[in-house]
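Good day; I would like, with your permission, to put a structural problem before you. What I wish to show you is a protein chain and, alongside it, a tokenised description of its three-dimensional fold. I would ask you to consider whether the tokens describe a fold that such a sequence might reasonably adopt. You will find the record immediately after this paragraph:
***
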Amino acid sequence: MGSVPLRSVVFVLCITPFIGLVIDGLNSGLGPDPAEQVMGRSGQWALRMLLLTLLVSPLRQWTAWSMILSCRRILGLFSFFYASMHLASFSHFYIAWQPSLLLDELIRRPYIAAGFTAWLLMLPLAITSSKAWQRRLRRNWRKLHRLIYPATLLACLHLLWQARSDISESLVYTVLAALLLAWRLIPKKGSKGTL
């Protein structure tokens, strides 16, 4: 499969959860608390896409399939898309787009501060994801895009902190994130650094 068809397939797979959410919304399929459904599902997919983005480099090394690198940008942008949807739904349903209420929530609830900080770290990555920005920033581009590491840790912390009685799902995501980040600490022959 060529890189263009592969990217097309990945794009369709990445947008499918959003389409499912829209269809459920139009058909009253979001249950008794639509706000919670939108927030929960968008947040889950933001973290899943973030982990898939981090999985690209290990897969490239393990399979020697260089074409998979062409999917990393799509996965990263969709992670930011779902994270932005998560933040927008929180802003709409819970604080009615009032900055003062957001500031109050950030101060009173550490898990919201962690999630918001993760989104802020992802923002420059989304803005500079293009080839043009990569050429413009040169070596600094790779350094900047390592912000994905603290963003992932903060996203996992955001999920763990808000989990109440059952933290099993949060732990699964956290362990996967820890493994993907730990892989990057292993010295690799001929590597100039990796994302």
